[in-house]
Amino acid sequence: MRFRLTPRDDRFFPMFIESAQNLVAATDLLAEFLNVSANREKLAIRLREHEHAGDAVTHRVIHELNSTFVTPFDREDIYQLATLLDDVMDSMEAAADFVVLTKLEGLPAEMTRQVDLLQRAARCTYEAMGRLPTMADLAPYWIEVNRLENEADQVYRGLLSRLFGGSFDALTVLTLKQVADDLEDAADAFEHVANVVETIAVKES
Prior knowledge:
Layout: H1 12-33, H2 40-67, H3 75-102, H4 109-131, H5 139-163, H6 170-204
């Protein structure tokens, strides 16, 4: 950690932890949502509640950012970290909402793999948010999340290959691709969060 002449305001760290914890809970709900026998309408409502909770945390971060002069690290990085965590939640909620709206039933096995990778990224992110105050041992976090995102890319490309392979009708291809895109966007957003954390760590070293 670099030497500081002024005290820092640590009020942001609990909010980042809260946001990441919300993502862990949401990815677990999303995994349950993929079960064909699940009550997807109820689960989609619960995911929307998590999305609203994530929005509330993001708004609190921005409010505090606009009302304090002393921050634990660069203001732009705080803003990016808060909004990117929110982006993960938005993409996952959008995927579930679209499944319900289009009344999709059976979902490809690749989507289960996509969500499994999101669950793992969420847990890595939650653990990393707890280490932000000290910046200790964060490198394994962003390395692992980048690896998970690369794996998610491979799963996504494999799913697209199957969707366009002729086994699905055109309308089903379009609807399933939208869900796959949303899940891929969530994986990308987790990687973007990790990249911001890496940037913060480099600046603070």
